[in-house]
Amino acid sequence: MSLSHRLILLGATGFGLGRMPVASGTFGTLGAIPLILLMPWMGRGGTAFFLVSLILFAVAIADKAAAIMGEKDPGSIVIDEIAGFCVTMALVPVGWVSIVLGFIAFRCFDILKPGPVKYFEQKFSGGAGIVLDDIMAGVLAALVLKFLYIWGLF
To answer: Domain coordinates of the chain in residue numbers?
Structure first.
């Protein structure tokens, strides 16, 4: 396997977190925490730019990794969970309580795949199909977190 393929797979698997034998998506989601901890330092504009860049990167790398692996949506690709969890945390102050609540909300939406999440999973293919359902799960989880924050529940 070429070095470029290895680097693509390293990025797509969240530096190997996606290769965990069980709950690879859950472990992959944890890989977003270092990025989330940097988001407050970026400011609103910087965070928006970061999220757009991360989503575009995730779509491209997931597409290439799936092709290398010869699968439609390999479970070991977790860059989508990383991007989705970063989206989850974009609307509230970042702290350990919000990270834990955001993690739970994101994983619930990602696993249960309610309406809009399922739509994106079924409607798109390739890297977009791998990533966009997780972005929608992140948007829904972000709205839940924002609601909880506004109501003073954390």
So the answer is: 3-15+22-150
- Look up the pTM and report it: 0.96
Tell me the C-alpha to C-alpha distance, in Å, between residue 91 and each of 20, 25, 123, 126: 30, 22, 27, 28
Residue 5 — very low, low, confident or very high, per pLDDT cuts 50/70/90?
A: very high
- Average pLDDT score, the chain: 96
Q: How far apart are the first and last CA of the chain?
A: 48
